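fyi for ur records
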Amino acid sequence: MSVYTVHEPPLGRRESDGDPARFAFVRDGFYWSAFFFSVLWMLWHRLWLVLIGFVVLMAAVAVALGVLGASAWASATVGLLLAILLGIEASTLRRWTLMRRGWSQVGVVVADDRDLAERRFFDVWAAGAASSPALPMSSPPSLRMMNTRDDVIGLFPQPGARP
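which gave:
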């Protein structure tokens, strides 16, 4: 099962509600495409600042390894480690870019694939919109405090209780 974060784009000038067709679902996990095709992956997802930072980092690492007189094996290893790091952090970089562009995170969904994640999210979203249209989707659910004596979590006794 994969975890997806759901992001809503900022409203346009003439929009009163967000267009569900424009929502972005970002899977959490390792991105093989970012690992193998890093620059192309960044261009595809329009991660311009990430791309500039990546190119600057790779150039700085190449210069540093050249100054240190590192072997080709060491340079390849450092490049592989940076590619692995990019594959691991690809979803975080996409979320960061979306947030910088004004997108808001409206939900988290656990599903086997993206289609099922979209179906689950929009089922809950539509049911929530039908039952309480005045509440925005991004508002957190209200939390209530449980004060009954039976509400013990785990093996810890309640404060003030005697054995």
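The chain has five helices and three strands. thats all i got for now
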